[in-house]
Amino acid sequence: MKTNTGSDPDGSDAGRELPTASRPAERAAAGDRREAYPYRFPRDGRQLGGHFSVQENARRLLRFFYFERRLAQALGAWTLSIPEFEVKLETGRHIFYHADAARLLRERLSEQEMRPKAIDEFRDAEIDQLIDELLSAADTPELLVGIHQVLGKALETTYRHHIDNTDPVTDVPTIRVLKRILSDYEPMREWAELAIAAYLEGGIAESRLAAWRWHLQKLLASLGGVTGAAPRNSAPSPLRTATKPFQRGTVPQRDVRFATFKNTGDYDTADGQARFPKDSYESLRLRFIRTQRDEVDAIEAFGTFLWDIRFLDFQAEYDLARVTWDEARHTEIGHRALLAAGYDPFELRNRLTGSTCRGPMEPAYAMAEINLFGEVGVLKTINGLIDTAREKEDSLLVHIADFIRSDERTHVRKGQHILKCMTTLGAPELELKTRELFTECLVSLGAVKSDMDLFIVSREDIERLVGE
User: Rounded to a whole number, what is the distance in angstroms from the first to the last CA of the chain?
Assistant: First the structure.
């Protein structure tokens, strides 16, 4: 394909001089008017000219879109399997950053006369193979190397080159989109470098990470880099995925700082004894804050859903990514609120009941548990909690709960569209099947005991035992 060198879009006038019909009297008059104009605005130094036609620009942006969409999905697939609290939290943010980058690129592509359906249906088998290999990381440090130091760094570099090489006048919307995306890439890269350094300082072998980095760099180069236009080398061999295809984890992982429990949904039971009188404000307050910290399991849930429904519906993927980011904020809010309330957050045991049940479950039922029971359950009680907190002049709880309430209202609304993409079951059938599956799981964990042959936990029991 010919590239545009500043002449007609198809390059047909390249190298051909065209006559100018300027008239001396008109030019002199224009100069006089310009001299008489009193304002001297800053000079715009941009010049027409760029390396890409609309068609080539769109081809590259479509690959950028696909990389970003696949990165959001890929990080979602690992949310259950990441043990380290800070990395799981940060991953919840990064899922949305990549999904939002995909959204921006998708909008720009639609402005360049691509139908959204065609954009969403785009697939690239070579990029898919790279993503699958990246996901076959042995542990979280290897995952971060692949996501950030290999693919993330390559995307960031490519975006900067595209900004430099596209036409700064005719293609300024693309430049703006890429600059907005880069505003998220810079903190992601900085965080990842520090996180990988922490792993190395903690005893992870640098040689192992270096070998994995080199392996993935060669694989990326074998498909022509991010743009697909760079010279290709041979792919590394063997690929991990050739002998063991990637499968997402199903078991929630926590690092050694956590004490966890899953055989009950009740914090007092898990703690051995109540910290405050049952149903007292102090007890309800601590439970609410702990529940927010324990929404680390919601990062796992929504991230996993994003992977499980990949390519079904872009808007559903985007909404799941946004909710995952929100849940990462809620987890952080809970952690910081525990500190502000005088606790070491890691002294309070972490509830794994929800993730343990949802991890192996079909996404529609796992999503229904959160949306139909968990989030709705929060909205049933949060208004009264905020009112009581105001009466008691508890500014900490009022502050955090006010923001969480607004998020949960949004999640309930978004969840309806997401559920429609996951299942064709009606609401009554979906609710009943979800309760049945959660009953089986909770009984197997010892969280509830059945004294009857036929037993299904109630909506209220699920709200209490899983506690989103």
Answer: 53
CATH 1.10.620.20 intervals, the chain: 54-227
pLDDT of residue 15: 65
Would the pLDDT of 424 be above 70?
yes
On the question of pLDDT at 236 being above 50, the answer is yes
How many Cα atoms within 13 Å fall on the side-chain side of residue 296? 30
DSSP codes of every residue in 330-341: HHHHHHHHHHHT
- Which of 152, 159, 180, 158 lies closest to 74 in space, CA to CA? 152
Q: Please give the helix or strand (H or E) that residue 7 lies within, else none.
A: none
Backbone dihedral angles phi then psi of residue 17, each to the nearest 5 degrees: -80, 130
Residue 204 has pLDDT above 60, yes or no: yes
How many helices, marked H, and strands, marked E, lie in the chain? 20, 2
Collapse the DSSP code of 211 into the 3-class scheme (helix H, G, I; strand E, B; otherwise coil) and give the result.
helix
Q: Which tens digits make up the pLDDT trace of 49-99? A: 889 899 999 999 999 999 999 999 999 999 999 999 999 999 999 999 999
The yes-or-no verdict on residue 240 having pLDDT over 70 is yes
Contact 220, 127 (CB under 8 A): no
Instruction: Assign domain 260-466 to a CATH class.
Output: mainly alpha
Residues of the chain with CATH 1.20.1260: 260-466
What would the DSSP string read from start to end of 248-310? ---S----TT--EE-S-S-HHHHHSS-SS-TT-HHHHHHHHHHHHHTTHHHHHHHHHHHHHTT
Provide the 8-state DSSP code for 42: P
Please give the DSSP secondary-structure letter assigned to residue 83.
Answer: -
d(CA 264, CA 442): 8
Task: Give the pLDDT score at 6.
Answer: 45
Match domain 54-227 to its CATH number in 3.90.550.10, 1.10.620.20, 1.10.340.30, 3.20.20.70.
1.10.620.20
CA–CA dist 288, 330 (Å, integer):
11
Inform me whether the pLDDT recorded for 8 exceeds 60.
Answer: no
